[in-house]
Design a protein that fits this description.
Blueprint lengths: L10 E6 L7 H12 L6 E4 L2 H10 L3 H15 L4 E3 H7 L6 E2 L19 E2 L1 H10 L11 E8 L5 E5 L7 H7 L9 E3 L2 E5 L9 H5 L6 E7 L11 H13 L3 H23 L13 H7 L5 E7 L16 H21 L12 E5 H6 L17
Parallel strand pairs: 1-2, 1-10, 2-6, 10-11, 11-12
Antiparallel strand pairs: 4-5, 6-7, 6-9, 8-9
Helix pairs in contact: 1-3, 1-11, 2-3
């Protein structure tokens, strides 16, 4: 395998969107990164992605994978009646049903009680498995996204600016109407995924800008065949609603990054001895100009045979193992190919690598790269 280290130190960023049980794929992505020496410097997540991010950032490096395995072991189920039994009974380490609320959706319970399930089990699980003081004490930076119920605006809670707690992670995963809103500093928040389920924008708004290698692990299918039944329509609706919106955003950012590079080159030709103070906007121009490079590796979980509208609730152990293994194998293949090391247009400040295309371009790519320790999750 090629050495995963880089000649010019890049910040390693892992972006994890929401997707419920589909998030087991993300755990496999992290395992492959870690085993290849690509420990994230910054984790950004929403919903289950925020939970996975907290499990990584909230533990010392030697325990991160162990804690991920423990979480997915706790939420893993052996449903007697398929996924419907999970819908009915919940997941003891994650969420449990408020049975009476299924028959009284009009009851005015108050926002923090207006949900079909309680997530108190998740609070206890996270308190067992994460130490969110670590991101603020030299560990990886952690950012989790939630949306204000009243404001309708996205809020990113960042360990660089705020002391994060379990409540911030739970707010990021408070998907209505299943899970209750979480109140932080007086404001109620819901799952950030209902506003932006691929939280990649904080990277490009971050200052100072740095060379970055960004792994974005998406779990919803942006493309599929036309559905033919109401049940298939429901499944396709979820995929479209929660699949990545990063594509159009990244296209715009690519144009902006080219302009930033051009501006840097232009500013380098400022005549020596000429006072820059004669241009009042000089400092603003300096802040916008940059010559850094960002590589975005886009991973997409494969669609499983027989997956349906309840796939994000399928916490069966067999589904968790399958998704974890897929995340591990997909990421190992793209790391071996390492397309971010290829030569590129020097004016391109933002380069996107589709993991599937990066793999297919390499002649003789193996379908499986050895045994994978996450298979017993």
């Amino acid at each position: 395998m090629k050495n995963a280290r880089h000649e010019r130190r890049q910040r390693i960023v892992l972006v994890l969107p929401g997707g419920g049980a589909l998030g087991a794929y993300q755990a496999g992505v992290y395992e492959a990164m870690s085993s290849s020496g690509l420990e994230p410097d910054w984790l950004i997540g929403t919903s289950i992605g925020a939970i996975n991010s907290a499990l990584i950032a909230g533990n010392p490096k030697v325990r991160r994978l162990e804690r991920l395995r423990e979480f997915w072991h706790r939420v893993g189920q052996e449903p007697l009646l398929g996924t419907w039994s999970i819908v009915a009974a919940g997941v003891p380490a994650f969420f449990t049903p408020h049975l009476g609320r299924w028959s009284s959706p009009h009851a005015r319970l108050g926002l923090e009680q207006a949900a079909y399930y309680s997530t108190e089990p998740l609070r206890r699980t996270l308190e067992d498995l994460v130490d969110l003081d670590l991101p603020g004490q030299g560990g990886p930076r952690l950012t989790v996204g939630a949306v204000g119920v009243a404001s309708g605006q996205m809020k990113y809670f960042d360990s660089r600016d705020t002391r994060l707690g379990v409540q911030h992670v739970m707010a990021s995963g408070a998907l209505p109407p299943a899970f209750p809103a979480v109140r932080i500093d007086g404001e109620a928040y819901w799952d950030g995924g209902i506003y932006s389920n691929t939280p990649i924008e904080p990277i490009f708004d971050d200052l100072p800008r740095r060379d970055s290698l960004i792994f974005a692990a998406n779990v919803w299918q942006p493309r599929a065949t036309e559905p033919q039944s109401i049940w298939e329509v429901m499944a396709r609706h979820k995929d479209i609603q929660f699949s990545s919106r990063a594509g159009p955003f990244i296209v715009r950012l690519q144009k902006i990054q080219r302009l930033r590079r051009a501006l840097r080159k232009l500013m380098a030709h400022w005549p020596q001895g000429e006072p820059k103070d004669s241009i009042p906007e000089w400092r603003e121009l300096e802040a916008e100009a940059c010559d850094g490079t960002m590589h975005v590796v886009r991973l997409l979980a494969p669609a499983g045979a027989g997956e349906d509208a309840l796939k994000d609730v399928d916490f069966s152990r067999v589904a968790i193992r399958r998704r974890w293994t897929a995340g591990y194998e997909d990421t190992m293949r793209v790391i071996e190919r390492a397309p971010w090391k290829d030569s590129a247009d020097p004016m391109e400040g933002l380069i996107v690598h589709d993991a599937r295309l990066a793999t297919s371009r390499r002649p003789g790519a193996r379908e499986h790269l050895g045994e994978h320790s996450g298979s017993d999750t």
